[in-house]
Amino acid sequence: MPEPLIFEYSVPGRRGVEMPEPDVPQTPFPEGFLREDLPLPEVSEVDVVRHFLRLSQMNFGVDKGFYPLGSCTMKYNPKINEEMARLPGFAQLHPYQDPETVQGALALMYHLQEFLKEIGGFAAVSLQPAAGAQGELAGILMIRAYHQDRGEGKKRIKMLVPDSAHGTNPASSAMAGLRVVNIPSDRRGNIDLDALRKECDETVAGLMVTNPNTLGLFDENLVEAIELVHRCGGLIYGDGANMNALMGICKPGAMGFDVMHYNLHKTFSTPHGGGGPGAGPVAANERLAPYLPGPIVAIDQERTVRPDEPFYTFVWPERSIGRVRAFHGHFGVFIRAYTYIRMYGPRLREVSEAAVLNANYLLALLRDLYPVPYDRLCKHEFVIMGKVSGTPVRALDISKRLIDYGFHPPTNYFPLIVPEALMIEPTETESKATLDAFAEAMRRIAEEARQDPQRVQQAPHTAPVRRLDEVRAARALVLRYIPTAEPHPAQA
Amino acid sequence: MPEPLIFEYSVPGRRGVEMPEPDVPQTPFPEGFLREDLPLPEVSEVDVVRHFLRLSQMNFGVDKGFYPLGSCTMKYNPKINEEMARLPGFAQLHPYQDPETVQGALALMYHLQEFLKEIGGFAAVSLQPAAGAQGELAGILMIRAYHQDRGEGKKRIKMLVPDSAHGTNPASSAMAGLRVVNIPSDRRGNIDLDALRKECDETVAGLMVTNPNTLGLFDENLVEAIELVHRCGGLIYGDGANMNALMGICKPGAMGFDVMHYNLHKTFSTPHGGGGPGAGPVAANERLAPYLPGPIVAIDQERTVRPDEPFYTFVWPERSIGRVRAFHGHFGVFIRAYTYIRMYGPRLREVSEAAVLNANYLLALLRDLYPVPYDRLCKHEFVIMGKVSGTPVRALDISKRLIDYGFHPPTNYFPLIVPEALMIEPTETESKATLDAFAEAMRRIAEEARQDPQRVQQAPHTAPVRRLDEVRAARALVLRYIPTAEPHPAQA
Amino acid sequence: MRFIPHTEEERREMLRVIGVERIEDLFADVPEAYRFPPLNLPPPLTELEARWELEALAEANTHTGQYACFLGAGAYRHFIPAVVDELLRRGEFYTAYTPYQPEVSQGTLQAMFEFQSMICALTGMEVSNASHYDGSSALAEAVLMALRLTRGERPKVLLFPTIHPEYRAVVRTYVQHLDVRLEGDTGWTLSQLRQPLGLLEELEARLDAETAALVIPYPDFLGRVLPPARLRETADRVHQAGALLIAVVNPIALALFEPPGSWGADIVVGEGQPLGIPLSFGGPYLGIMATRMAFVRQLPGRIVGETVDLEGRRGYVLTLSTREQHIRREKATSNITTNVGLMALAATIYLSVMGKHGLRQVAALCYHKAHYLAERIASLPGYEVWREHPFFHEFVVRTPRPVPEINRILYEDYQILGGYDLGQADPELSGHMLLCTTEMNTREEIEALVEALEEIGAPA
Amino acid sequence: MRFIPHTEEERREMLRVIGVERIEDLFADVPEAYRFPPLNLPPPLTELEARWELEALAEANTHTGQYACFLGAGAYRHFIPAVVDELLRRGEFYTAYTPYQPEVSQGTLQAMFEFQSMICALTGMEVSNASHYDGSSALAEAVLMALRLTRGERPKVLLFPTIHPEYRAVVRTYVQHLDVRLEGDTGWTLSQLRQPLGLLEELEARLDAETAALVIPYPDFLGRVLPPARLRETADRVHQAGALLIAVVNPIALALFEPPGSWGADIVVGEGQPLGIPLSFGGPYLGIMATRMAFVRQLPGRIVGETVDLEGRRGYVLTLSTREQHIRREKATSNITTNVGLMALAATIYLSVMGKHGLRQVAALCYHKAHYLAERIASLPGYEVWREHPFFHEFVVRTPRPVPEINRILYEDYQILGGYDLGQADPELSGHMLLCTTEMNTREEIEALVEALEEIGAPA
Ligand SMILES: Cc1ncc(COP(=O)(O)O)c(C=O)c1O
Ligand SMILES: Cc1ncc(COP(=O)(O)O)c(C=O)c1O
After folding, report:
1. For testing the chain B interface, which of D7, D14, D51, D53 should be mutated: the one with the most B CBs within 10 Å?
2. What integer best gives the mean pLDDT of chain B?
C-alpha cells in the first residue's frame, strides 16, 4: 500500500501539538504585515507517528543490513554516539554562550582537532566545513589565498583533477574560480605521470588527489606526482573521503599533502542521516595552516590558571580565508566522531586493516564472477564491472536485483572511467558471514542473468515500489504537493 | 526472508559490548563455585541492531496502524510520556533511597493516587499491583480480609462472576481460594438478575462486575445487582479494564463498587510493551481502604514544614493485605499515566465521550454487514459475530484477512458467550477516516467471503508469515533454542 | 483535545450516522443520578507545560547518577549499553500487545523465544516462561506451582530465612487464604543468620512428607552464595522427601556461579532487572521463571513455541495456552495475562549484546569491587565485615553507629547514597548495613566511601 | 575490537582466501617509508568509560535548560515535541544515505518531497531544494545562483547591512576569488542602522545594470520586519533593474508575516534550525532554499520529484540531477552532495505535528513575549529600547553599562544567559544588546531578567 502524503491526512481544524496560552499581556500585530493562509497540514500526533514510521519502513539503512555503497563508508554507527549527542549539556548549548560557560564543548572540539591532526599527520585542523564538499571548497580557497599572498593569485588558475575523481573535486574547483584540467589515469589506475608532467607549469594552483583513489587503489605514483606538482609551485589537495583505508597505515600530511578534508560521516562513524548532516573538517600542514577557515579552538594561555585545566577559546587563524558557515560547525557530529575516536584510540589502525581485509576478501570472492578492471591489491573498496558476458544485464540491473536479496546496492556508474562500474565498499564492521552471503547473491545473480535475464532486468521484485520512471519525474517536475480540489483525508 | 535466531549469528569469540578492566585488585573466586560454560550468543553490536530492527518490522503496534483489539484499549501512546519516563531524575532512582531524596517521585505517586481516587470516586488507592490481574487478586484478598475481620472468612467462599467476565476474574478468585459461581447474562447482555438473586446468600464473598461489560454494554441491571449483593453481605469488585468509557461519565465508587482496579496501560495510555508492563492500581471505598496492599504514599504531617511543600512518605494501610510485590510498583508506568492525566485534567471526559462516539459510529457502519448479537447503544467497544451467512468464513478468517488490509485484528472468540465473537474497540485516538477505512475493509471482506471464500480463509497473504501451525507447536514443544552440531553463522 | 482527532464537523457527522443528536445521548444508559459527575482534577497542560512539571518533579530527586550509590538489596545499578534503549524505543515493539495474532507479531514472539532460550542458558533449566511481573511475584507463583505439582497434598513450604524479606512478604500475601504453612524463615538469631550452612542444615531437618518445597536464595539477601556442591546434597534431600527445590537467583551472579539447573533445582525464579533494566525507583522489573520440561504444564504465564507456517517456514506462536486464564478460567495455572514483555525484550537485547564474554566481565567486576570494598572496610576500626562465607557483590557490615545516622551523614556530607539498613528487614540485624558494588562503582567512589566511613566511625 | 566482528580464526581464513599471509601484506603498496606510523592518541575506552568521559564534558557546560536564556541572533531555543526525536531515531532513516536507489529509499524521498512542499508553503515559493548546509551557506549559494541567473554579466550584489554578520562573512568567503563585488552592508552609522526603511531606500538607490541581486533579511538581524507592502515596491525596483531579490528569512516568523513569495522575492533562503532542531552549540542546522519554478535549473542541491513505478504506483525520485556535481562536475550548479537530510526530516516532522495552528501559536508567543519584555525594559532607567519599528521576537537595547559586563553579572548573580553583544557584530552598535524571547521563556524568567537589569543598571 503506498503511503499518502502527510498533507493528504489533513483535516481542517485537526490539531497536533498545542502550545500554552500566552502568560504575558498580548501586543497587537502590526497592520498590513500578516499573512493570510498558512497551508501546512492539520493532523494529529498519531497521524504523524504512523506516517513517518511507515515511511521509515520503506527505507534501507545500515541498521537494516549490508550497505556496500562505494566511496561512502557505510559502517555501523555505534548507538552510544547517538545518546551522547543528546545529552542536554551538549544539545542545549547556544552557540553564542560565553566561552566560560561552554568549556566542555570547547574541550571536545579542541581534542577532536588534535586527534584529526595526529591521524592525518597535519599541523592544524579547522572543524568548520559542513561536509566533504565544503571542506574541498575551503581547502581550495586556502590554496588560492596562499598563491595570492605570494603574488601568484592571478597566475595560478589551473586545478589538476584526475579523471577518477569524485564530482565534487572539479565542482569545488570551479566554485573557487579555478579552471579544471583533467588528468587521465594510467593502465594500473594510477595518476598518469606523463599527462601530469605535461600540465605542470606555473599556472598550476594544485592537484587534487584522492588516495586510495575511487578505484579503491593506493596510487603507486603518488610520491612522484606530489613531487612533480610541488616542484612547479602547485599544492596538493587531499580528498580524505577514503581515510578509512589509511588510519595508522600512513599519514597524508607526512607524504606531502598540503591540505585535506576528512568526512566525519564516513571514516568516523557518524550516521549519514539519509543524506546528511556530515562534517568535513579541513587539515593543513604548516604552510597552509594560517589560511584555515575559522574559528578554531585553541588554549587561551592567559586565562589558563592550572596547566591541567586549560581554558579553551575560539581563535582565528592568522590569514584565514574566513568563515564557511555561521557559528562553529556541526557540533552534534563532532560529539559522535569524538566518542568514536576515543573508543578506538591508536587501535584505529585495526579499523583500516579490517576495512582493507574485508574489501580484498570480497574482491577475491567476486573475482571469478565479474570482470575486474584494475585487478590488484585493493584498499577499503574496489570496482568491478556489472556485466555478465553474453547477457543484456547491466550494472543497474545487478544493483536492483541485490535489493531482492536483502542488500543495499553498491555505488553504480562511478567512477566514470569504468564502464558499468559497481563500486563496492564493505567497511570493517561487516562480518565474514555477511560478505559470504553477499558474494553468494552476486553468484546467483550472474547465474540468473544467464538463465532468466528478465528477472534481473525487472528487479527489484520485493521492494516497496518497482523501478521508478525518472524520465517522467524530470519532465513532469512535480516538486511539491499541490492540494486537489476535493480533499479526502487518509486513514492513519 | 525469515530472520535467524540471535543464537544463529553467534561466532565463538566474537564480542559485543566490552567492559573496562578492573580498577581494583582482584580477588580469587571461591573454588568449586564456578560454572563451566555460559551458552549465550557471541555477536557484535551491529548483529544485534539489525536482528531486532528486522524483528520489529515483523510486528504490528499502535504506532503502525489501527489496532482495535477489544478489551485492551489500544489507544495512541503519547511520545512525551516516553521521554519523561527516561529523565535521569526518575529512571536512575534506587527504590531504597531515603524518602527525603526522592520527594519528586513520591509526589508523583501521591498525586496519581489522588487522580485515580477522583476519577473512580474512591476513598483510597494503592498503586502496587503490577497489572490488572494482580489488582484483581489484591482486591479479592481485600474482600476476604474484610470478611475475615468480621468473622465470616471461612463462611464467605463464593465469588459470583458473570459469564461474560474476562478469564482473569475467575482465575483471580480461585487464586484467592474462592469458589467461582458463574452468573449468566440475560438477553440484553446484562447480569441476569434472577440467576444472581438465587446465588445471593450468606456464603457470598462478592460479585465481580465489569462495567461496561465485555460486550461493551453498560449493565442496565447494575444498580439492582449491586444492591442485591450488598444486601446479602457480599461486596462488589469492579474490573476497571473498561474505564475508558466512563471517565467523567460516572464514578463506580459512587455507584456502590467497593473495590476496583485500573489498567494504566489501557485507560491511561501507557504503552502495552508487546505484552506488558502495565500497572493495575487498586482503589477502595472507605470500607475497604484499610485493607489495600502497601505501601502507599501519604503526606507526613510531622515532617511537613510548609503546607504548600508537603513531605511525602510511604505508609501502610492499617489492615493491609500485605505486599503484592517487592519495592513500590511499576513506577515507570506511573510517570506515563501521570503525564497523560495532567495533559487532560477534567477534560478526560472528552476522552470517554470520543471513545464511545467512535465505537457507536463504527458499530453503525458495520451493523448491516455482520450480525450484532446485542444491538443497542454501546460504550467504548462492541461485539459482532464474524460470520457471513451462506459462507464457511469464520471470525478467525476475518481477523486474518484484516491483516492484509493493514489493520490489526479485533479480539476474537471473546467474550465466550458470543459465538464467533469479534470484539472491536476503536478508542478515541482514531479518526473518522480510519474508522471509515476499517468499515470499508470489513465490507470488502464480507463480499470476498461470498465471492472467493478461500482468499479469506487462507489469509493473511501479505504478512511476514502465513498462518502458523499451533497444534504442531503444542505437540513438538520446542520452547528454546538448542544448538545444532554444525553452527553456520548467519549474515547480519 | 490533543490526542482526539475529531473536528467539530466530523463529530456532528458521526452523531448523524449513529442517529443521535448530542454526544450526551450516547450515555442515556447511565443512571441519571450518577451521570456526568464533575472531575476535580487540575486543569489540562500542553506538552510543554507537562514537560516543565515533570522535569521539576524529576529534579526534586537525587539520583544515582549524581551521587555514588552503594544500595543493592534486590535492585541493582548496572551499565546499560545504549543499544538497548535504541531498540526498545521502536514503536512496533512497545506499542504492540500480547502476540495473540502471530502473523503480525513475529517480532515479539521470536524475541520472547530468544528470551526463554537465554533464561534457560543462564539458569541451566529446560524451559522458561516469557516473564512474570517481578522476582517476588514469580516466587509466589513458584510456590503455588510447587503446591500444584505436589497435588495440594503438602501444605508446608520452607523458606530460607535470608531470602529477600519483601519476597517472603509477597509469598505470604499470595497464600494468606490458602491452606498453606510457610515456615523456616523467621525466628533466627544474629549468629544463626551469620551461618548460612547452619541454616541450610536446620531447614533440611524440617523436610517431611508435608513439605511441598524448599526455597533457597542464590545469592542470598545478604550477598552470600551457598556452595553448589552442598546444594546438590540439599537437592537430593529435598527430592528424597518428595518435595521440590526452588531457587531465587540474581541472573548476573549466574554468569559466574554454577547454575541451579546443575545443582538440582526444580524451579528457578529471580529478578531480571539487572539485565539491562533501569532502576526506575523499583519498577517495572522482570520476573524470571524457569523449570524442568516435565513441569511445563504447571508453569504459569506465557510460553512461546516454535512451529511452521502454511508454507513450511519457521515461525513462533504462543503455546500451551490451555494453562491460561483466558481458556481455563478458574482452573488456570495463574491469573496472569499482561506480563512485562518489554522488560523481557530489554533483557534479551542486553544479553545479546553483552554476550557470554561481556556478562562474565560484568559479574567479575561486581565481585572484585565488592571484595575490595569489603577488605578495605574490614580494616577500619569499629566496623566488622561478614567475610567468612563466599559472597557475590553484596556483603554485611556491622557499623559503629546506627545505620540511619551513618547514611544521613554520607548523604549530606559526602554525596553518597549509603547501604541498605538491615535493621529494616530484621531487628536481629539492626546495626548492620548491606553494601553493594557493581561495575558502575569506580575505585574513586569506593575509596571515597571508605574514607567517609572511617571519618564517621572515628570516636568523636 | 568492539565494532569489528572478526575473530582471529575468521581473519586467518580470509587472508588465506585472499592469498596473503599477514594483514600487513595488504599494505605492500604503501611506500615503506610512510607505512604504519605510530598513532599518538589516548588509549581506547569501553562504552562505559566513553560515557563517563562524555558526560563529564557535557557537565562542564552550563546549558540553556539550566539558565534562562535570552540569546537568539540566528539560533533559537524552541520547544521540540517529543515525537520529533522519537521518529528521527529510527535507524532506517538516520543510517541511510543519499537516496540514489529510490526503490529502497522511498521513506527518505517522500519525506523530502513533503519537506519541499512545506518550505514552499511557508515561503510562498514554487520550488524548494531538499536542504542546504545552513542558512549562511544557503545565502552564499543563492548569491552564486543569482550571478548565474544574470549570466555572470552583473558583478555587483547588494547586501542589506542588517543581515546576520556571519552570513555576510560567509558570502564574502565564497566569492573571494570570483569577479564579484559585495556592497551596501558596511559603513553605516548607528542612526542609519536604526532606520531600516532609510537603509532600504539607500540600497534601492544603488540598483543598476551591474547589479545581480539585492539581499534583504526578513526579519533582520536586529529582529525588525520590513513592511511587506514596502518590500513589494522594492521587488518591483529590483526587477526593473533586471536584478533578483533574495530574502533571508526566519521560518517561524513566516507563520505570522506575509511570505516573501507574496512580496516578490525570487530566491528565499534561511536558517531552518528553529523548526524542531536543537541548539546543539551551533550545528548541524538546516539551510532552506526556495525559488520560482522558472529558476529551478539553477537551484543547487538535491530535489525530489514525483513519478510512478513500473506498476503505475506513485513514487519519488531525485530529479534534475543534471544540475549536480556527480553528473556535471565542474559545470554543476554547486559542489554540494551531502546535505543535512536528517535535519530536513526533523523540520518535516516538526511542521507536521505543529501544523498550521501550532506554528502560528509558537510565532505569536514569541512575538508577545518579546514585546512584553521590550516594554518592561523600556521603562527601566538607563536602558533604551529600539521599538519604533515593528519587530518579531528580537529587539535592540542600549544598555547603561558595557554589554559584556552586564552579561557577566547576569550569569554569575542571576543564573541568566543574557543577550547578544551587538558590539561584536559592528562597533557602531557597541553598548547595545540584542535580546530574544521564544515560547520557552516563561513570564517568570522575563520578570527575573527585568529585575536583574534594573538592579544592574541602577547607579551605584
Ligand atoms: C571521494 C569523495 N570525495 C568527496 C566527497 C564529498 O563529500 P561530502 O559528500 O561529505 O560533501 C565524497 C562523497 O560522497 C566522496 O566520495
Ligand atoms: C476485562 C479485563 N479484565 C481484566 C484484565 C486483566 O488485566 P491485565 O492484563 O492488566 O492483567 C483484562 C486484560 O486484558 C481485561 O480485558
Report:
1. D7
2. 97
The answer to whether C254 and C123 are in contact (CB under 8 A) is yes
C-alpha cell at B401: 484477512
CA atoms within 13 A on the CB side of D394: 32
Q: D296 contacts in A (CB within 8 Å)?
A: 477, 479
Across residues D319-335, what is the average pLDDT?
A: 90
> Which atom of ligand 2 lies at the shortest distance from residue B214's CA?
1
Please list every residue in chain C whose beta carbon sits closer than 8 Å to the beta carbon of residue D91: 86
B438 CA distance to ligand 1 middle (Å): 47
Of all residues in chain B, the one with the smallest CA distance to A429 is B46
- CA A240 to centroid of ligand 1, rounded, Å: 9
Q: How far apart are CA D86 and CA D349, in angstroms?
A: 10
Query: Which region, left, alpha or beta, applies to residue D230 given φ > 0 means left and ψ of -120 to 50 means alpha?
Result: alpha
Question: Measured from the CB, is residue A425 less than 6 Å from ligand 1?
Answer: no
pLDDT in tens, B376-396: 999 999 999 999 999 999 999
D 6-35 near A (Cβ less than 8 A): 6, 10-11, 13-15, 17-20, 23, 26-31, 34-35
Q: Quick check: B137 and B291 in contact, CB under 8 A?
A: no
The pLDDT of residue B486 is 63
- A146-171: per-residue pLDDT in tens? 999 999 999 999 999 999 999 999 99
Tens digits of residue pLDDT in C398-448: 999 999 999 999 999 999 999 999 999 999 999 999 999 999 999 999 999
Contact assignment for D176 to A322 by CB distance below 8 Å: yes
Specify the pLDDT at position B487.
59
Residue whose CB lies within 8 A of the most ligand 1 atoms, among A136, A237, A263, for a mutation test: A263
Q: Would you say residue A457 has pLDDT above 80?
A: yes
Judge contact between A180 and A210, C-beta under 8 A: no
Q: Which three cell numbers stand for residue C296?
A: 511445563
Q: Which helix (H) or strand (E) holds B90?
A: helix B88-91
Any idea how long chain A is? 492
Q: Please report which ligand is nearest the Cα atom of B261.
A: 2
To the nearest whole angstrom, how far is the Cα of D3 from the nearest Cα of chain B? Answer: 7
Residue D384: beta bridge partners? D398
Helix (H) or strand (E) holding B88: helix B88-91
Q: What is the mean pLDDT of residues D93-99?
A: 98
Whether D47 and C82 lie within 8 Å, measured CB to CB: yes
D91–C91: do the CB atoms touch at under 8 Å? no
Cell numbers of A311, please? 581554558
* Site of grid cell 564574502: D172
Q: What three-state secondary structure class fits A204?
A: strand
B342 and C45 within 8 Å at the Cβ level: the answer is yes
pLDDT for residue B42: 97
pTM for the model stands at: 0.98
Question: What is the arithmetic mean of pLDDT over B187-214?
Answer: 97
